[in-house]
Amino acid sequence: MHHALTAQIERGSQRTGGRRQARNIPGLQARRARAHQSAALDYAARGIRINAVCPGIIHTSMLNSMMATQADALNAMLKDVPIGRLGRPEEIASAVLWLCSSAASFMVGHALAADGGYTIR
Fold this sequence. Notes:
mainly alpha
């Protein structure tokens, strides 16, 4: 994150993006959330907004191979997703683009869950 922030400061940019994957490892998500929130607080006064996007299960080429060999495992994972389907890469891209837009200019230190409701179940 340090190198990205240094580049943002040098360019005078006010937006930086990142991606965080949700994992069920106790404490890991909390530590990552604190890290991006801490950086957001440190850099907000410089006009740099730091937020995170937390994607759920996204239909990617890597997931295609899992679907071919481990369909039962994928179906079991989808039972935990209230919307009942895989996310699409363009849905995550749209979330990132929105966070980088002026429409989200007051968002600082937010972890945006784009996970089909997984984290609220």
